[in-house]
Amino acid sequence: MSEIPIMVMPWHRPDPCKPSKMQTDAAFKATYLDYLTALRLDSPPLSTTLTKIMCTIGPSSNNVDMLVDLMEQGMTMALVPLSLGVRQDHINMITNLRTANMAFNQMKNRVFPLGIAVQTKGPGLRIGGLVKDQPVELPLQHKLTLTTDKIWRTKGTEHYIYIGFPELCQSLKAGDVLLVGNGMVILQIELIDQNEAVCKVVGAGTIHSYMTVAAPDVPLRLPPLTDEDEDDLRL
């Protein structure tokens, strides 16, 4: 036996002479059967997980206690959907995530690197928010006005709703059909004004805040990255 002492570094723990925690021999086998055959049963289990869990943060989870609990349950990355809410909502969400991360670090007495990702709105069409975030029932033949005026962005009612498409009135015409929420509500445009489109409900249903809008028979020219996306990314 060699008389040379073995130095055990922190990343070698518990002992470099014991079986490795990494199943390197099995990892690169060509078949699943060969992989199972090459596994070392005496190899100790890893003390840390290799699986990453990304959670989408919404109104129900946007508080520090809930976020700490999500990290306790294994969340390693938080996704902030920029298509929901307004700019201040997103700022509050990111602030809560950072506060929760600091609290989790102190609780565990170690640094926990929580990743924060954002999901841009993209080129799709969406309506704005409704008053008090309450759903609105739209009966048949009901008249609804879609507006691009941002003053209505979070003040939608059964009569007036914001739509995030500045070129709305230049791209659509009377008679065009709009599908709200994948067809949950169907609107037909009756009148186009400077920044408004007066619509008639031809498919009754309930709408919620920030639902998607599709114009199946209209070739809309939507940029891959909108000005609003760029503003959100600068956040």
Q: Give the total of beta strands.
A: 12
Residue runs with pLDDT of under 50 for 5 or more positions: none
Q: Strand-and-helix sequence, N→C?
A: HHEHEHEEEEEHEEEEEH
Tally the helices. Answer: 6
Count of domains = 3
Gap between N and C termini:
62 Å
The largest sheet is:
7 strands, mixed
Mean pLDDT: 84
**Largest sheet, order of strands side by side?**
4-12-8-9-10-6-7
Looking at the structure, the CATH topology of the largest domain is M1 Pyruvate Kinase, Domain 3
Structural class: alpha/beta
What's the alpha carbon Rg, rounded to whole Å? 27 Å
CATH H-level name of the largest domain... which superfamily?
A: PK beta-barrel domain-like
Task: Give the C-level CATH assignment of the largest domain.
Answer: Mainly Beta
Tell me the overall shape: elongated
Helix content: 10-25%
Describe the structure.
The chain is an alpha/beta fold and 235 residues long. The protein has three domains: 1-47, no CATH class; 53-119; 125-215, PK beta-barrel domain-like (M1 Pyruvate Kinase, Domain 3, Beta Barrel). It has six helices and twelve strands. It has helices spanning 24-27, 32-38, 64-72, 87-108, 168-171, 227-234, and strands at 53-56, 75-81, 115-119, 125-126, 136-138, 143-147, 160-162, 177-180, 185-192, 196-203, 205-207, 212-214. The mean pLDDT is 84. It holds the Pfam family PK. Keywords: ATP-binding, Glycolysis, Kinase, Magnesium, Metal-binding, Nucleotide-binding, Pyruvate, Transferase.
